[in-house]
Amino acid sequence: MPLASLHAPFDHPDWIFELKYDGFRALGYIDSGKCWLVSRRGTTYKSFPQLCAAMGTAIPAHAVLDGEIVYLDAEGKPQFYDLMRRRTPQHYYAFDLLWLDGKDLRDIRLIERKRLLRELVCAPVLYANHFEARGVDPFQAACDHDLEGIVAKLASGRYEPAATTWVKIKNPRYSQAEGRADFFDCALRSVAR
């Protein structure tokens, strides 16, 4: 699911709001006690073997999750640069459930998929809680705690990548965003050499 962008938060009874976790977006494929984490571009992450093993063991189902690989500090805040350095332990914040034991759930309303997801997950998979109808207050709290922002999602939305049912609203003063473009530019230049 791609994310559209807005510059200001909003309240609306048809939407739910989640924190935006700063990490690596990944689909989690879980089957027969094994887990594969796959990027938005379809690349299987190979540098999270402990997390994959723990996820495969923790979830006794055949499932496909959508979520974010994160490293959390002592306060539970995502630390992107520590994740880049592959510090452990890593966690996976699951915010959607697309497939469960042979059943395609993408046509079910998001709020129902999240209910099923909450029943399924356990550590190291963390459930991404949400706020119903109110986005302004969670956004302000995200800014006050130096988090990346929030994501607004249509509560009745189906999982359709062509539809704009997920919208990110980023904290403009988020400290971990500083220098990130330079960091990735340097990484790309070193790969090109």
Structure description:
The chain has one domain (4-192): DNA ligase/mRNA capping enzyme (D-amino Acid Aminotransferase, Chain A, domain 1, 2-Layer Sandwich). Helices cover 25% and strands 34% of the residues. The chain contains five helices and eleven strands. Strands 3, 4, 5, 6, 7 and 8 form a six-stranded mixed β-sheet that branches. A five-stranded mixed β-sheet has the order 1-11-10-2-9. A hairpin with a 2-residue loop joins strand 6 (90-100) and strand 7 (103-104). The termini are far apart. Mean pLDDT is 93; it is low at 186-193.
Question: What are its keywords?
Answer:
D-amino Acid Aminotransferase, Chain A, domain 1; globular; 34% strand; 6-stranded mixed sheet; disordered C terminus; alpha+beta
